[in-house]
Amino acid sequence: MDSLPISRAFTLLEPGPVILVSTHDGRKANLMTITWTMVLGFSANFAITTGPWNYSYAALRDRRECVIAIPTVDLIDTVVGIGTCSGADTDKLSRFGLTPAAARHVSAPLVRECLANIECRVTDIVEAHGIVVLEGVAAYIDTGRKERRTLHAVGDGTFIVDGETLDRREMMRSKLPEGL
């Protein structure tokens, strides 16, 4: 095996999928691209990594709510564009031609062009690590959407796209928690 600089080790574990986080600060909606996400167990609890350097962070901290919007591969240029400009001076929904839809439980909008949206409440912020813990309160999926492949960031400007689905549900059925 060849040596890899420890500063690049994170590129081996980037989890994905890449998500858009929709927030609303009481005046306007904003979107940010997040590549570091985590599911917390077999529940609707999630964690994202962000911090004060992101314009949306103040809305997450102060309003304690957001929407996780899950884009597909056909939105890659939109996802990268959203991640490379600031909501401080850009209306990202308008600039990237995305359609906001009213959420039922939070003030942040759903994003119609995405495969799925999850309305969330912020339950904890671990400032030392830039971790925002979220609890999902409602979820929606566009079952009619033809493109369903999601993006996974490697961390160096390259992305991996979901591929073939391998079904081992029957093999694992006795090991999964009830209801999955």
TrEMBL record:
GO molecular function annotations of the record: FMN binding; oxidoreductase activity, acting on the CH-NH group of donors, NAD or NADP as acceptor
Source organism, top-level taxon: Bacteria
Pfam families the record matches: Flavin_Reduct
Signal peptide: none
Coiled-coil region list: none
Keywords (A to Z) from UniProt: Flavoprotein
The protein's required cofactors: FMN
Domain Flavin reductase like residue range list: 12-153
InterPro entries: Flavin_Rdtase-like_dom (IPR002563), Flavoredoxin (IPR052174), Split_barrel_FMN-bd (IPR012349)
Membership in a protein family: Belongs to the flavoredoxin family.
Annotated protein name in UniProt: Flavin reductase (DIM6/NTAB) family NADH-FMN oxidoreductase RutF
Taxonomic lineage: Bacteria, Pseudomonadati, Pseudomonadota, Alphaproteobacteria, Hyphomicrobiales
